[in-house]
Design a protein that fits this description.
By secondary structure, this protein is of the alpha+beta class. It is 30% helix and 12% strand. The protein has a domain of 221 residues: Beta-lactamase (3-Layer(aba) Sandwich). A hairpin with a 2-residue loop joins strand 1 and strand 2.
């Protein structure tokens, strides 16, 4: 039963028009579904100020951190296959994180560190790993900004960026604090190592193709470039930083034009913010999470209802750590190892049910 009032939803139309008129955005679109029914859509403004091309329903946009749930789902699918568990240390897949060190509390320089355990996959997913972002406010963030460690589409390879991040200390002992970070970019590299594929190939074969997301990818093919939006900011400083708004008639400035954008043909697939897609494509993905859709009914490496359910309830912190987050041991991560899937994984490998999943990773050439 629909409970959203269409008249109230229509109040968003003048809000969107006002934001465009005030030059906060050059253009935008909004799509809302309730259950299986579309209840609201509106698009207004321009996708390119120079050409005057309108921002339309099929406009391709950089979806940045909306990439993160896709990466998390891909990881959960591998967990469901028995490849590893969420409490596995990242150093098992990326050895450069093996000798981890964390800044001491109140550190004023990057050499004030202490040894620590490598972050777990769960901590990377939940931003409790000790990693950071260049736009955060800390001495670690300042060094990341100096090295431009933002996993940009033209920043070389994903492996090289992860190596550079691993060479820096963590902001804190893993599991003790929360800080928004490049952790899910590192998860993307873990997925590449385990599968032996690029992150884009994994997304396409396991998620996008089964769901019918035909216009979402890490690149923009030639056939779709005429619908790709240019990127503008109303901020006076760095578009990826929190700073004051620019003033005057030219307050919107272009920071990445559709022609010549590194997103057209990237060298790096960022699991934390690299996808480009359309409004309708992302709605299909959101519906997968909302309805806990099973892309297939078997264990063939597709999205199973259990993966979707664990991911969605985890985001609502149902499986959260204790309130005084004291370390990885407090996490109830074993709940993700569902008994039925564990038995199937053990049976395929000829093992008895041991209580936790172990598997062999061809890409690493050793057991996980």
């Amino acid at each position: 039963m629909l409970t959203l009032d269409p008249r109230r939803l229509d109040r968003m139309n003048p809000w969107a028009d006002r934001y465009v008129a005030e030059r906060k955005f050059p253009g935008l679109s909004v799509l809302i579904r309730q259950g299986d029914q579309e209840v609201y859509f509106n698009a207004t403004g321009l996708r390119d100020l120079d050409s005057g091309a309108p921002f339309a329903r099929d406009t391709l946009a950089r979806i940045y951190s909306m990439t993160k749930p896709v990466t998390a789902l891909a990881l959960m699918m591998l967990i469901e296959e028995g490849a590893f568990t969420l409490d596995a240390p990242v150093s098992r897949f990326l050895p450069e994180f093996a000798d981890a060190r964390a800044l001491i509390p109140g550190a004023t320089s990057l050499d004030q560190t202490m040894p620590c355990a490598p972050p777990t996959l769960h901590q990377l997913l939940t931003h409790t790993s000790g990693l950071s972002y260049p736009f955060n406010a800390s001495i670690l963030s300042e060094e990341m900004a100096a090295q431009d460690l933002l996993f940009k589409p033209g920043a070389g390879s994903l492996a090289a960026q992860c190596n550079a991040v691993a060479a820096l200390p963590l902001a804190f002992q893993p599991g003790t604090q929360w800080e928004y970070s490049v952790g899910i970019d590192v998860i993307g590299r873990v997925i590449e190592v385990v599968t032996g594929q690029s992150l884009g190939e994994v997304f396409h074969s396991r998620i996008f193709e089964p769901l019918g997301l035909s216009e979402t990818a890490f690149d923009v093919p030639q056939s779709r470039r005429d619908r790709f939006a240019s990127l503008y900011t109303p901020l006076a400083g760095d578009a990826m930083d929190l700073n004051s708004a620019a003033s005057g008639g030219d307050s919107l400035r272009c920071v990445d034009h559709a022609d010549g954008s590194p997103f057209l043909d990237p060298t790096l697939h960022s699991g934390g913010g690299g996808l480009v897609g359309t409004l309708d494509d992302y709605m299909l993905f959101a519906d997968c999470l909302r309805a806990r859709v099973s892309l297939t009914s078997d264990m063939s490496g597709r999205c199973n209802k259990r993966s979707v359910r664990f991911y969605s309830v985890s985001e609502r912190r149902r499986y959260e750590p204790s309130r005084s987050v004291t370390g990885s041991s407090t996490y109830e991560v074993r709940r993700c190892v569902f008994a039925a899937n564990r038995r199937q994984a053990d049976a395929r490998a000829g093992r008895r049910d041991t209580g936790c999943i172990r598997a062999h990773c061809p890409a690493l050439g050793r057991p996980l």
